[in-house]
Amino acid sequence: MPKKNPVTIYDLARELGISPSTVSRALHDNPVISAEVRKQVQALAKKLKYRQNTIAASLRMNRTHCIGIIVPRINRHFFATVISGMQDEAQEHGYTILIGQTNERIEREHMQLNAMISSRVDGIMVSPTMYTTNFSAFAQCKAHHIPLLFFDRTPQHGHHHRVVGDDFQGGWLATQHLIEQGYRRIAHFCGKLSASIYQQRLAGYRAALQQFGLPFHKRWVIEHELTAESTPQAIEKFLRLDPQPDAIFIANDTSALHSIKLLQARGIRIPDEIGIVGYSNDPAGELISPSLSTIDQKGYLLGRTALQTMLDLIKHRDRKRAPSPITITIPVELIVRNSSVRQAR
């Protein structure tokens, strides 16, 4: 049985005895067309199950109303909440989002970027891999007149639009809290320092130590990928330190949650013997015992703010003079739970 062709505006126009352009305006509620005609067109479109050919419309308007988003890992709480904020903001403005995941691999980042450009998205938003140090591939966006915005992880140099969390302040707050709880030998598990966020969290940690007159020891900074797989080796390295640190500021909650379990398996009491503060406010942190102190990055707010910023860039993309680079910083908040609070002595 031959497949029935989809209903077009020409079919609607023929049925009603009006022009295709009138049908198009009526479907878009153009006030130039009388209310009665708009009502007739829309009723017939519903009856015949007419659906707009969005691809054809996009080609005519040079707009897809779709924004590409590239993230390292969709299954991380932070990125899930960021994407949720972006999705809600996009939907309110009639946009859809296209999501690409890199799994922290640079070649996949380039592949996702090329796919977004080929899909003719109206804008591209990127949180790069923790290994990305060369951002020249993103110059393609300018060549194709596609606005580009980096969020969370961003290039340290060059003229780029950015929406970031206050990672320096987050590192400072986490370390200050541990010091105020009486910890004096505070180690730091950081992510790969090629990534801007881990550089800033480390800088905040160092600044807090300095402000409170505590020494910084490079060997107490343990760099790893902050995954479930890399944390055991980091804990082994931590336990070999001499003198033994009495607290750890860990730059994400995934590693912090696993660190608590690994240390407890060694008979180490948290927080009495070792205090721990994580980063990102993963809901699992409330369920573990002891519950995890952490830094809330306000991922949902960051996502909505980044999407709003991108919509503004899209509005300006056809102007000859590009807007000056924008940097928006989202405040962070210390969430104090049991993993870092010592009992009064």
From TrEMBL:
Residues 7-61 form the HTH lacI-type domain. The keyword Membrane does not apply. It holds the Pfam family Peripla_BP_1. Signal peptide: none annotated. SUPFAM superfamilies: lambda repressor-like DNA-binding domains, Periplasmic binding protein-like I. GO terms for molecular function: DNA-binding transcription activator activity; sigma factor activity; transcription cis-regulatory region binding. The keyword Transcription regulation applies. Keywords: DNA-binding, Transcription, Transcription regulation. PANTHER family: HTH-TYPE TRANSCRIPTIONAL REGULATOR GALS, LACI-RELATED TRANSCRIPTIONAL REPRESSOR. This is LacI family transcriptional regulator.
